[in-house]
Every structure is written in C-alpha cells, then in structure tokens.
Amino acid sequence: MLFAFDWTQLAQQTVIGLSSGGTWALLALAIVLIYRSTGVINFAQGEMAMFSVFIAWSLVHHGLTYWAAFFLTIAISIAGAIAVERVVIRPVEQAPVLTVVIVTLGLLFVVDGAARWFWSPETRTLPNAFSTSPITIAGVAFSWQDLGNIAVSLGLVVLLWGLFRFTKLGLALRAAAVNPDESRLLGIRVSWMLALGWGLAAGLGAVSGMLTAPALASFDQNLMQPVLLYAFAGAVLGGIESPLGAVAGSLLLGVFVNLVGTYVGWIGTDLRLPVALAVILGVLLVRPAGLFGKVSARRV
Amino acid sequence: MPRSSLLELEDVEARYGQMRALHGVSLEVGEGELVAVLGPNGAGKTTTLRAVSGTVRRSGKIAFAGKSIARRSPEAVARLGIAHVPEGRGTLSELTVAENLRLGAYTRRDRAAVREDTGRVLAHFPWLGERSDQRAGTLSGGEQQMLALARALMLRPRLVLLDEPSLGLAPKVVAEIFRIVRELNERDGLTVLVVEQNANLALDSSSRAYVLEAGRVALEGTSAELRRNESVRRSYLGY
Q1: Nearest-angstrom CA–CA distance, A95 and A256
Q2: Is A6 on the interface with B (CB under 8 A)?
Q3: What is the least distance, in Å, from the CA of B187 to any CA of chain A?
Q4: Which of B93, B102, B151 lies nearest to residue A171, judging by beta carbons?
Q5: What is the span of the domain harbouring residue B208?
Q6: Which of A182, A191, A242 to mutate to test the interface with B (most CBs of B within 10 A)?
Q7: CATH number at residue B214
Q8: Along the 239 residues of chain B, how does pLDDT read in single tens digits?
Q9: Rounded Cα distance, B139 and A96, in Å
Q10: Is A178 close to B92, i.e. CB distance below 8 A?
C-alpha cells in the first residue's frame, strides 16, 4: 500500500531533536572540557547544573525576568564552581585519577543534598525563555522554544570556540590541559586554569539546565539526571576527547533518539534513555574513540 | 670570572622523592655569558636547570638578579624572565606554531613590543613563518627544538636555560641550533645556561663551563682551560 510520507512531521521532529540535542551538547561540552584537562569525568556536572537551575528559579521567584536570571545564574555558577574547584578538587590535584573521580562522586551527593535541603521537594516551573507561539517556516510549524534553544546552544558553542581559538586566555587553557608541565615554564598558572575550566564547565551546565527546565511541564531536583546521561552518550559518541565531537555527537543523538521515539512505536517516549545507553555501549564496543576522536597512544 | 652575576647557585641540593640528585652544586652565570654544563648521564645536569626553574624540589641558595628564587614556583620563575627550554623541547603539541610563539609571550603585557619580537624571532627562524598554522606536534625533532628556542625568546628572557638541545638530532641540525644560540649570545647579549652531552660543541660555543659528576661540580673554568684539561679530554672529548 502506498502512502504519502509526512515530511512535515520529519522536519518538526528533527528540529525538536536538535533542540534537546543542543542542550545536551552544552553539558557534554562541560564534561569534555574537564576530561581534557584532568582526564576525569566530573560526575557532579549534572547536579551542579541542577543547582544552577534552582538558583535561576529563586532569582525568577524574587521577581527577576528569565533573561536577567539567566545571565546572573551563569555568573554565579562560574564563580561557585571556581570556588568548589579550589576547595574540593585542588587538594587532590596530584592524586591518581580514581581518587579525583571518587571526589566528584562525593560532590554529586553533596550538591544534590544541598539542593534538596535549600529547596523543598515540590515541583517547580521556570518561565519560557521564548515565545510559546509557533512560527511557520516553509509551511511547517516550529516552536520558538526549540529554535531558541538551538540558537543559544550553537551560539554558546561558537563563543567558546572563539575563546579557545583566538584569545590568549583560551590558548593558555588549551596548553595547560594538554601540556601542563611545559605550560608552567611559560608562566601559565596551570592550577588556576583548571579552576577556570571548572568555572566554564559549570557555566555551560547552567545554560543547559536553564534551557532544559522551561521545556518541562514541571521539574524537581532530578531534572538533570537524564540530561547528564544523554550528554555522556553524546560525548562518547563524538569522542570524549573532542569538543567538536561532543557537540556533533549530542546533536546527532538528539535527532536519533527523537526520531526513533517518533517512528518506532514501541519505543515511544519511555525507552529513549535506554536507546541512549545502547548508543554508549555500541560506541564503546565498536569505536571507542568515538566519531571524531583520535585513537590516542598515551605515554605511561 | 663572570661579569656582574645574574644567576647564582650556592650549595644547591635537589631530590626526586627519596633520591637525592644534587649534592650541593654551586655555579654562577654572569650577565651576557654563555655558560655550559657538561657531564655524564645522571650527573645532575638537567636537575640543575630544573632546580633553577623550580620544577624539582630543591634547597640551598638560588639567586637571580640579586633576588632569591629558591622557593618560587615555575610560573613565578618564568615571570621573572627565565625561559627554560626543557629536555624533549616542551612544545605545546596540540597548538600551532603561531600559538606556541604567542604563548611564549604569555606573561608579557607590552603588545607592541611582543609584535616587534615576533618579527625578530622570525628573522632568526624564517621557516617558522611559513609553518605558522601547522600543529607543533607534527614538526620534526629539529624543528620542534628550534620552535622551543624561538618561543623562549618571545618571553624577552633575561636568562635562557637550554637543556640538551642536541638530543636525538642530526649533527647538521645541532650545528645550526648552536650557531643560532651563539649568534643570539654574541649579537643580542642573550645570557644562556646550556646543558649539553656533546662536550666538543658545548666548549666551542661557551665562554665558561662546569663539569658535573654525581650531583657535584667536579671541575670549572673557562672553556679554553677545560679543553686543555687532561681528564676532560679523555672523558668527554674522546682524544
């Protein structure tokens, strides 16, 4: 039987996929930033982003507009993460990777507990960042929310790329990540660069969270847990060492998961997370370096 | 003897964990001098440079331009104008040639002078200009050594610590590197403390030299004197 394929639906679902993929990409980028400079996955990254969302919620609750709260939250998150790095991570800077991983796991529970202690467990909402009315492009209706998410995510990625590519500070961050000993000899304060990396990562996570929350009917302290898993899957798919890969991987994953959920009936919305986990497993088995990663030989 | 002394080590000890690598080294580098440190493997040559730049745990007296630097971090030592070109060249492998040079001047705030110095450095190493967008990690060993030296110059250093510039390089490349170092010393008055296995080359280029053995200074003198010294000739010059 012949039937007309619904191209409109495909376009809409692709954009929705890019929208969530974009928010995952920011958190994935945060994970890759820290991983590249320390060789450690910061398991607390998602909970830190959640904490940022609650800060934004409080600011909005006290009368700030969404966008005022947005920028203020980024600033607070960066400063807060730098402080956390100095207090919690710096003492174990020279310790084996496993020690640092355990410390980030501990941090996960501390941040999570703190958020539950400060803010009661009821569900909350964050106002929409963009108009809720649809926009019609070439006869297909999209939501401003999705297009806005994509624009903010990609804009931030470009901004960050510019920072790392063209500014002296960005070069120093990259140098400190890859060649810490050599960087020290050039007068680069490597330890502070790591702290700054934490700050940037937290800023990215905050944006990821603040774009994620308004799209939900309501949220609580668990809101970033699936996002962290998707972000991790995106980063692994793109190559955990590659910032570009993390972004591309997350976008691809966003589209893939959404299309699979749309067109494969029995997956629907419930099994999207397992699909992401399957992607992690598949990539690690078939191509551990990811799509954009280089297979690296490490001196030990 | 040195003119006004720029770097002074007195009774410097250094250790890696439990292992002592320097047992009281004293040496001096005068402003504008090119001083060489010779010695067999494991004598403490590299460690001596690392003691100065602060990349090894050290004690004793280390003074630079009259100020004690014995307790300063590598970052702080670099900020005083000491450029350490480590063994293995220390290129920032993921960054391009141009980015490496730019970070050589990381601590400097005088943008105009940095631009001027970029021009001067490129005059010494013209090929660096053509390769400016190439990743440093993909350069050959000799090219990386020259890049490391060029990057050190971007600090507008008062002192360059040069560790085994000849390591693993073809004789022709080594000769070229030493020619440039000598030129920088003679023409621009650059002060250099160079560690070198190749004693012939080191004594040819330097005005004075120290011979290290087992973490101590065994001999010191002008390079011409050391050249005539029986034991130096037998042990290091091979005739």
Answers
A1: 39
A2: no
A3: 24
A4: B102
A5: 5-88+158-237
A6: A182
A7: 3.40.50.300
A8: 545 799 999 999 999 988 899 999 999 999 999 999 999 888 999 999 999 999 999 999 999 999 999 999 999 999 999 999 998 777 888 899 999 999 999 999 998 999 999 999 998 898 898 999 999 999 998 899 999 999 999 999 999 999 999 888 888 999 999 999 999 999 999 999 999 988 888 999 999 999 999 999 999 999 999 988 888 888 877 76
A9: 31
A10: yes
User: Rounded to an integer, what distance in angstroms lies between the CA atom of residue B237 and that of residue B239?
Assistant: 6
Question: What is the domain extent for residue A187?
Answer: 23-223
Nearest-CA distance B103 → chain A (Å): 7
Q: Which residues contact residue A52 at a Cβ distance below 8 angstroms, ignoring those fewer than 6 apart?
A: A73, A74, A76, A77, A202, A205, A206, A209, A210
Provide ipTM, 2 decimals.
Answer: 0.90
Contacts of A172 in chain B (CB under 8 A): 103, 106
Look at residue B95 and tell me if it is in a domain.
no
Q: Residue B103 and residue A172: Cβ atoms within 8 Å?
A: yes
- Calculate how close chain A gets to B233, using CA atoms only, in Å: 35
Q: With b meaning 16 or more CB within 10 Å and e meaning fewer, what string describes B122-141?
A: beebeebeebeeebbeebee
Nearest-by-Cβ selection for B95 from A174, A184, A190:
A174
Residue B39 lies in a domain: yes
Q: pTM to 2 decimals?
A: 0.87
Rounded CA-CA distance B145/B141 in Å is 6
Number of structural domains (chain B) is 1
